[in-house]
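Severity: low
Component: inverse-folding endpoint
Summary: output formatting inconsistent between runs
Steps to reproduce: submit the following structure tokens with default settings.
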């Protein structure tokens, strides 16, 4: 079954067979146009600062959503997941900000959209955030966790596009490879927690959310079987290059 993801900021499948891409300095580049690099329907900025801005925004969004989940959730599993998201994305964001500072770059807290697709994404992100702020208990848990699956699928796609569009093996390339290993783990955790919740959000499906959790990515399609074996621990498969 084809799974169309809605949600952003992307964890690459540079695992197993895909890891060779990182080791070779992303020798297989995607298309690049208008300051964006594209790969399998996903897009990421080619400009280093613009990419760091978006990674920073994704991390901040995850931290804020996780803290909201700790307040509004009624599920111990959801709260445990949210605690890890806050912890992991705080650590990730520290790496992003440290790298930016080392390059003399000042990150934007709310980067401007580079194209119409990002504008739509950011509007959906805002709508999802407002929806979550209005929910508590079981309804919050279902929306938050289903959105987390879609958001991490999209994050996987963004990192994949960014890495494919990049040559060399500098600090940013290393960071993207690190994300390629961490984000699929988050996605699988979200899928497993969503499965425990059951019911309203159609747990057997893709975890597609009403809106995007992160507004900094364009839409893309990922097919089943796209994650190398061993890349996931449960739920529906993630993508492979």
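Observed output (run 2 of 3):
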């Amino acid at each position: 079954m084809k799974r169309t993801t809605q949600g952003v900021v992307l964890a690459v499948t540079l695992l197993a067979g895909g890891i060779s891409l990182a080791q070779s300095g992303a020798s297989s580049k995607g298309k690049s146009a208008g300051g964006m690099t594209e790969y399998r329907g996903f897009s990421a900025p080619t400009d280093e600062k613009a990419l760091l801005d978006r990674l920073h925004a994704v991390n901040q969004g995850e931290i804020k959503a996780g803290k909201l989940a700790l307040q509004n959730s009624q599920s111990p599993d959801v709260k445990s997941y949210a605690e890890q998201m806050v912890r992991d994305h705080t650590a990730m964001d520290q790496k992003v900000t440290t790298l930016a500072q080392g390059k003399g770059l000042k990150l934007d807290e709310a980067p401007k959209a580079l194209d119409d697709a990002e504008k739509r994404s950011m509007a959906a992100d805002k709508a999802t955030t407002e929806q979550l702020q209005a929910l508590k208990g079981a309804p919050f848990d279902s929306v938050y966790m289903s959105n987390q699956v879609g958001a991490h699928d999209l994050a996987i796609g963004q990192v994949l596009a960014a890495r494919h569009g990049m040559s060399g093996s500098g600090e940013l390339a290393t960071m993207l490879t690190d994300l390629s290993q961490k984000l699929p783990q988050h996605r699988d955790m979200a899928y497993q927690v969503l499965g425990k919740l059951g019911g309203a959000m159609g747990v057997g499906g893709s975890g597609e959310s009403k809106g995007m959790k992160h507004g900094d990515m364009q839409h893309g399609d990922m097919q089943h079987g796209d994650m190398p074996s061993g890349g996931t621990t449960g739920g529906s498969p993630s993508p492979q290059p």
